[in-house]
Amino acid sequence: MVSARETAEDVPDPEFPALTIADLGILRDVREADGAVTVTITPTYSGCPAMAQIAADLRRRLERAGFRDVAVRTELSPPWTTDWITPEGRRKLSEAGIAPPGAHGGPVLVPLSVACPRCGSRNTRELSRFSGTACKALYQCQACREPFERVKEY
Amino acid sequence: MSEQSEFDAYLSLADVTEDDHRWAFGTGFADPLAGLGEAVPPDVDPAALAERCLALGDDALIYSHRLQQWVTRAPELEEETALANIALDLLGQARLLLTRAAQAEGRGRDEDQLAFFRDEREFRNVRLVERADADFAELTARLLVFSAWRLALFDRLTADSDPVLAAIAAKAVKELTYHRDYAAAWVIRLGDGTDYSHAKTQAALDALWPLVGELDLDADAAAYLDGVFAEATLTRPTAPALAPVAGKTGRDGTHTEAMGYILAELQSVARANPEATW
């Protein structure tokens, strides 16, 4: 039987279906005791509208996997940061044509240019500090001219 | 790729169970603080905590609504996206804060009841957030002042005696910094732009300033604003604060004329069909 943790780790993110909630660092904890499962998730942004969907997906998948008593709880502290996106998650973002965020907590003092996820050129520019979801900004590659989204450091 | 095909937003909407019925208005979502400790720590006064969360939640709720009114009206799609995102962040903060306020007051209400079924005099937001923006200059000037003020306030709240409020503040600080920087970039661009954009931006600041008096700006926020004004070649207005009405301001439930119109738009549908679910 697949464990509760494996089942929860496999749930795709509603806004980045190529990534799981584990890849994004949204899944914080899975506990199993006496057949009951408690899953802890964390919102990316305060207003992230995907949280209710993620909780519903978690419940549905765990119930289908045979877990009858499933609780999903929210943890706000410490606040989510893009540093929690795993290396695997960053790789999947690039593959999906979305530039991954740079390191947030590290000693980066000079803003590094963002590489185009399509052609790899670093000759890119920010079109808008915001984009289609709360966690992304809009860029354009000056080399291949393609617009692309980037997960902004947070 | 069975995993991939299993993900279908429409399919999951149809996949309802007994407790999946959602209230037709407002969030209808699960409690955003689900599983987070509801109990107010013994050393925290619940009434004072409820009051604090309500005031800060109302600021975010009403200002978010004002920002949402720019959607389909902004000068460029990129700015519209920005404003919608900022409004969404503030709505998220409002949901968390109103939920915490409801937990602390312990009267069995929830975020939706607080947002949709209170009357004007029960709202505790500052009057600055009620005002309708006359133009894009007013929008950016107000967003700058509001974000700088709220950021400094929330920075202090990260050490609040209530751990839930402190956690909400720690999340919001990241969002507010981003909002403030966005607004500052526009105010500098417009203030230090053409004669026309400079005049409009100075006029916007002058028009807003009487409402800034209610904010109790701390030294950090004031210094930040002065820095932006200097770079934008704008003059910090000296207009006195808008007078209280019979000693009362927004925090006491006394609002400007604009407030009734916002609440009518925000609440009328929910109040007409309070039992509706889908």
Structural write-up:
The complex is a heterodimer of chains A (154) and B (278). Chain A has 154 residues and is α/β, with parallel strands linked by helices. Helix content of chain A is 19%, strand content 24%. Chain A is built from 3 helices and 7 strands; from the N terminus they run αββαβαββββ. The longest helix of chain A has 14 residues, at 51-64. Chain A is elongated and about 55 Å long. Chain B has a single domain (42-272), classed as Ferritin (Up-down Bundle). Chain B contains 10 helices and no strands. Chain B has helices at residues 2-6, 9-14, 46-68, 77-105, 111-116, 136-157, 163-191, 195-212, 219-231, 258-272. The longest helix of chain B has 29 residues, at 77-105. Chain B is globular. The chains are: A alpha/beta (154), B mainly alpha (278). Chain A binds chain B through residues 10, 12, 14, 17, 38, 40, 43, 45-49, 51-53, 55-57, 60, 71-80, 127-132, 134, 138, 152, 154, and chain B through 3-4, 7, 9, 12, 15, 20, 29-30, 32-36, 78-79, 81-82, 84-86, 88-93, 95-96, 163-164, 166-168, 170-172, 174-175, 178, 181-182.
